[in-house]
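Service request form, structural biology core

Requester: graduate student, group of Dr. S.
Request type: structure prediction, single chain
Budget code: on file
Notes: please return the result as structure tokens.

Sequence provided:
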Amino acid sequence: MKKQNPFRYFKTSPEVIRVAVMMYIRFPLSLRNVEDLLHERGIDICHESVRYWWSRFGPMFAREIRKNRIRPAPGYSNWRWHLDEVFVKINGELHYLWRAVDHEGEVLEVFVTKRRDRKAAFKFLRKAMKRYGQPHVIVTDKLRSYRAALDVMESGRRQETGRWKNNRAENSHLPFRRREHAMLRFRLRQTLQKFSSVHSSIHNHFNHERHLTSRISFKNQRNAAIAEWRQLCAA
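Core staff response, request fulfilled:
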């Protein structure tokens, strides 16, 4: 069965749509910043088009990226998860954004809740483990909700806590915080869940930890990531 082209009803070329979505989600730019940058390159679009494109195609791109990512084999003994949550305000109301990051800095799962109790932690862990399986070790802070949820799942023996052990998760919040500041925060809980999920996948795709590799290796990885991005959702 031939795969349908998701861009078939759009007058704008798929290349422009991919570039606009990548610029808006990957970099801390506003909708009008993206409009101005594309206008400078001879592409005349409205900022509302950028809003519609990321909402329509962002989850689609993120889904293809996650599908093509290589995951550790079952039973991999060094697979560690780092769990943490950040405070996010939606229309002045406090919410919590839970995040699971592996030992290589890959953002595995994000989940938005109103509370930070055992029930919320259990839903977050169950969602992450259903998609990625069981990790060997789970590193958390000293929030008691993690221990209570892991006891229900009979995975308490895998938990580790300690000072500086969870820096991997703490540092993973920074790109999202910069993005949140550029967007002047969120107004809907559904938008926060949708955007944070898309942002994490695209950040994983373009994050090569350039401080750990040589310049030549980084350039090759960057070129490969851009080439893969241009092929997303290709008919």
